[in-house]
From TrEMBL:
It comes from the Bacteria. This is Cytidine deaminase. PANTHER family: CYTIDINE DEAMINASE (PTHR11644:SF2). Keywords: Hydrolase, Metal-binding, Zinc. It comes from Thermomonas beijingensis. Its EC number is 3.5.4.5.
């Protein structure tokens, strides 16, 4: 499993930048590309709820913007906090699990469990029956 120490710290820092006036759930994600570069993102909500965006996909967008189609995901850490700063156990949502797999089927994912400890899993374990576009 990759080293998540610095990614967890960056995810926690990035969560402080979240725009979350509706849910008050501040989420940060920090990922390491196979190139070694690190990218981060936070959730950005909107009054039209459904167009809000997740931290994980914001980090992916930053990575693709920098590296283009060659971007491959090695590891990602996700950190979430309440509006009072309490760490919360939040794993990537279903859409983000699909997005993570797109860029790294063997990537590692780390997030907090309910007891506050960090779990580390392969992204494949988070979404075993993922969508795969059939060959045409
Ligand atoms: Zn998500």
């Amino acid at each position: 499993m990759p080293d998540f120490t610095s990614l967890r710290t960056l995810a926690e820092q990035t969560a402080q930048h979240a725009y979350a006036p509706y849910s008050n759930l501040r989420v940060g994600a920090a990922l390491r590309a196979t190139s070694g570069a690190v990218y981060a993102g936070c959730n950005v909500e909107n009054a039209s709820y459904s167009i809000g965006g997740c931290a994980e996909r914001a980090a992916i967008a930053a990575a693709v913007q920098a590296e283009g189609a060659a971007f491959r995901l090695a590891a990602i850490a996700v950190a979430a906090f309440s509006d009072t700063g309490t760490p919360l156990p939040v794993s990537p949502c279903g859409a983000c699990r699909q997005a993570l797999i797109e860029f790294g089927i063997e990537a590692g994912v780390s997030f907090r469990q309910p007891d506050g400890s960090w779990v580390e899993v392969d992204v494949d374990a988070l979404l075993p029956y993922r969508f795969i576009l059939p060959a045409q």
